[in-house]
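Letters spell out the chain; backbone shape is given numerically. Both lines appear below:
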Amino acid sequence: MKIATYNVNGVNGRLPVLLRWLNETAPDIACLQELKAPLEKFPEQAILDAGYKAIWHGQKSWNGVAILSREAALKEVRRVLPGDPEDLHSRYIEAEVNGIIIACLYLPNGNPAPGPKFDYKLKWFERLTTHAKELLAGKQPVVLTGDFNVMPTELDVYKPERWVDDALFRPETRAAFKKLAGQGWTDAIRTLYPDQKIYTFWDYFRDAYGRDAGLRIDHFLLSPQLKDKLVAGGVDRNVRGWEKSSDHAPVWIELKDI
């Protein structure tokens, strides 16, 4: 099974890019973030025409997450991260596919930090960590994936000294990711490439993509049942160079015997 995650940065505005990528790479499951579209504006028919079923949780102008499946049935489990009934941001959706729980998330950016947005980021992280622990306690294998808005280590960021005060790289953020992963999750891409520079995001400014001044902020965390099934993975970084593309590139993994 090939599973991908892609922050599309506007599903309607960048629909041609998304459809081209789906056609060229054909992931079995694709998790999307930052739809920037309300529920009724999600391009369901175009996705269906491309050969994918979809579930989504949209929000006007901001956020939004979706899970696409090429063949397997999608059974929605939840579309809200537990822990704060007053949080109305569309940042989480969870489905069962082929006996696996696929959790697609868009973790808050948190800038400027410190401040209320950073506090919200850390609280969201705490809620995610609590729910992730509950997922691990279940019997089903789990893939936790999406835009985490965190660079876990200095290897994951171009010129880390420039990012020390950024919400994506502050010690509190990295500590939160370490605590989450420490529950028993496997960071799939870093496991496959333990010492290599791997980026998933390049800013639009200052020719970041051309200079390869990137960040690794889109991640796959695998529950223990899936650790030994991981056989491949990577970043479709060429997609970042397409015309009118997102500032993120798709990230993917392959799991055997699923």
